[in-house]
Input
Amino acid sequence: MLQLLVGVFVLAAPPVEKQNPNIVFILADDLGWAEIGCFGQKKIPTPNLDRLAKQGMRLTRHYSGAPVCAPSRCVLMTGKHLGHAEVRGNQQAKATYPEFSEGQHPLTEGAVTLAMTLQKNGYATGGFGKWGLGPVGSTGDPNKKGFDRFFGYNCQAVAHSYYPKYLWDNDKKVQINSKPVPGHKKQPQGEVKLEDYLGEVYAPDRILAEALGFMDANRSKPFFLYLPFIEPHVAMHPPKQWVERFPKEWDETAYRGERSYLPHPRPRAAYAAMIAHLDDQVGQVLDKMDSLGLAENTLVVFTSDNGATHPAGQAFVGGADPQFFNSIGNLRGHKGSVYEGGIRVPTIVRMPGKVKAGTSSNAPGYFADWFATLCEVTGTKAPEGLDGQSLWQEITGRPDKVARKPMVYIFPEYGGQVAVHFDRFKLLRTGLKTKKPAGWELYDLEADPGETKNLAEREPGVVAQGKALLKEANGNNAVFPVVIPAD
Output
C-alpha cells in the first residue's frame, strides 16, 4: 500500500499483529481469606492489592487446590483435582527417592503441566519463588515441567528460612547468604532479639529482582510468569524496617519458637510486615508492567495456595496470630483443613478491556480451573482429561451456562480428609486415618458459608450423592492412598 507524504511516495507500515496475551500468575503462601484489605482486612494495609481489585475483579468464592502447599500447586499446574492428582500431600521426595536430600515428591515424567502446554504454544515461561513438585534432577524438576527459567526455592522445607544459604537458578545453586538463618529454632530463655535472626539477603527481594529481569528480557514476546512467592508462610523474620511500620503495642510477649519455626520479639508486627511486604512486591510487578507498556495485554491473577496458618494446640504455629487479624473472616478452619477457612482463598483477576474494573463474582471456582482458563485466554489447545473448566466467560462478564463440575478434595494428611463441593452443598469427612473418624458433614454454602449447621442427617439423599461423587473421583494413588468410607 502506497501513501503520499510531503511529495514522496513511501510504503506504509503494515499493521502490527496483536501479540498473544501475557499471563502473570501470583501465588501467595498461606495467605488467609481476609488478610488483604479488599477482602476485609482492617489492620494490615495492602494498597497494591486493593488497587488491583479496583482495576479488576474479585473472585469471592474461589478455592485452592488443596489445604496445603505441594498438592495445591500440583492441582494448579496439572488441572487435575485431588482425586486424580499425582501429588496429594507434602511428602518429602526422599521418602520414596532416597537419592534426593531436598524437595517434595516429584511429578512423573508423564505429567503435563500448564507451563509445558503454554511453552509449546510459543510462550516464554518463568517461575520465580517456591516450587515443591520435585527436586532438581528428578522428573518433577521445574525445567522438565515447562519452565525455561526457574529461580528460587525448589524445596518447601528450605523455604521455611527467608535467609537461606542458597537458591536454585535452574539446576545450579546460587549462594545468597554466607551466614544463613535456619527456619527452626527455640529460645526458651533470654531476650529475643530481632537482629539475631536476620541475614544478609532477604530471599524474596532477590527472587523478585530475577522475576522483574525476566519481564524485561521477554517484553517483546508472550510470556507466562509464575510467581509463587513465599510470604506470609512462617518462619517470621522479615526485614527490620518492615516490622517497625506496625505498632509496638501489638506485642506484649515475644514468641520463643515453642510452636516450631523461629523466635521473634514482635510476632504480630512481623506477620503483618510479611503481608505488607508481599503487597509491595505485587506493586513492583504491576509497576514494571506499566513501565514496559505491557499492562493492557496481560492477565494478572493473584491468589493463595491455601488458608491462613493453622493452630498448634491453643495457639498457632510459628507465633502467627490469625485470630488477632481476623484472617479467615466468618469462615471455619485454617490451613490443613477442608473446611472453608482452609481452602477458600482471596483471588483477584485483572485484564484491562476484558475484565470489568471494580467488579466481583460469587461463582464457585478452584485451582483445577486455571489450566483450562489460561488455555482459553491464550488460544492454546488444552490437553484432554482436565478436571477443571474455564472460568473465562464468568470473569469477562458472560456467565457460562455449562454446569459447574464438582470440586473434589481427597487429602491424606492432617488426619485424612475428603470433601466435595457440588451444587450449593459441600460434603466432607475428617479423621479418616485416625482411630475415631468423624461422621459425614453436609453444609449449604450459600446459606451457611461459616459451616455452622450440619445437614447430613436431614438430607440423606444429598449425602449419598456426594459420597458417590467422591468414590467416582478417587483415582488410584499408591503414594498417597485414601479410602472413601462406605458408611
